[in-house]
Design brief:
236 residues; mainly alpha; 9 helices
């Protein structure tokens, strides 16, 4: 029995289990624990692909399992966090027929699945991404709700702002907007300017904003990717 061929899939399953646990904590209203297990899932997600390449045991089933695990950890779990937060913020003055509106948060899980399916088939995403990566989207929502919960609770129209935000991020997941990946062919400044600028600005954001700094970093990543794409389009 070749044990090493099962190592990447075992790591992927750990990612999936982390996503299930994150979802459990989300439905219990313990968002910081949900965020923690989304981060743990992201660590497993990083190492499953790396281990498959190092051990030369990549397989079609591993690719499919990875997408399934990612949709649980980075699609369903953050959707559950947003859903529960929307339930907390739901205006009591609203009539019961529209109490189903918070369930629209799970649209984000559907778009995450669609984004992952597109990624598996899109050969353009070897050194970058087309659309917002699901881990980035998950970390944005989880860290935003954990780090800014008190501020969100006092924000006028917070319910509707978050609801609209879920649709915006759902669009970004499947959009045709090119977004850079932190992959380096070489370590020189030239050719990697955007990546180095991004990494250097992440440090003060985390230092000054704490957990909510993760959300700020993802927002900055999106804006920087869009600005870079527009600049390259205008110069070509």
């Amino acid at each position: 029995m070749n044990i090493k061929k099962h190592i990447p899939n075992t790591i992927t399953c750990c990612n999936l289990i982390s996503g299930c646990i994150a979802t459990y904590w989300a439905f219990g209203g313990l968002y910081i624990m949900a965020l923690l297990f989304i981060i743990i899932g992201a660590v497993f997600d990083f190492f499953d692909g790396m281990s498959a390449r190092l051990l030369s045991v990549s397989s079609p089933i591993g690719k499919e399992l990875d997408s399934l695990a990612d949709n649980i950890t980075f699609g369903f779990a953050p959707s559950a966090i947003v859903f529960c937060k929307l339930k907390e913020l739901f205006p009591l003055s609203y009539s019961s027929p529209i109490e189903w509106i918070p369930f629209l948060a799970f649209v984000m899980a559907a778009f995450s699945a669609l984004r992952l399916a597109k990624f598996n088939l899109d050969e353009r995403q070897a050194m970058g991404f087309i659309g917002l990566p699901t881990p980035a989207n998950a970390l944005f929502w989880a860290s935003l709700i954990v780090g800014c919960s008190d501020w969100i609770d006092t924000l006028p129209y917070a319910f509707w702002i978050i609801l609209v935000g879920t649709f915006v991020s759902s669009y970004l997941l499947v959009s045709e907007i090119p977004m850079f990946a932190l992959k380096f062919k070489h370590w020189e400044w030239k050719g990697n300017e955007i990546k180095y600028i991004f990494l250097l600005t992440c440090i003060p954001l985390l230092a000054f904003l704490g957990i909510s700094g993760l959300a700020a970093i993802i927002a900055w990543y999106i804006l920087l990717s869009i600005a870079t794409h527009r600049h390259s389009t205008s110069t070509n």
